[in-house]
Structure prediction request, 59 residues.
Amino acid sequence: MCYRACKTCNKKVTEAIGFGYWCEACQKNDEECNLRYIMNAKISDASGEAWVSTLNDQA
Ligand SMILES: [Zn+2]
Prediction:
């Protein structure tokens, strides 16, 4: 229902082995990523960051 997205480019990232997440588009690892919810994607474009933060805090 959700996927991890790069904080820089918002493309999908994969879990890197041992450290953070790997972004194919940026060709780099990042220790943090955005969680994007597919079912909310259409309403989370404009204020996606706040939405995701709220969901993460509650989790
Ligand atoms: Zn990226």
